[in-house]
Amino acid sequence: MKRAVVLLSGGIDSTTTLAVAIAEGYEPYALSFDYGQRHQIETEAARRVANSLGAIERRITTIDLRVFGGSALTDDVTVPKQRSEKEIAHGIPVTYVPARNTVFLAYALAWAEIIPANDIFLGVNAIDYSGYPDCRPEFVEAFENLANLGTKAGVEGRRFQIHTPLIKLSKADIIRKGVELGVDFSLTHSCYDPTLEGLACGGCDSCLLRLKGFREAGIEDPISYAKE
Question: Domain tally for the chain?
Answer without folding.
Answer: 1
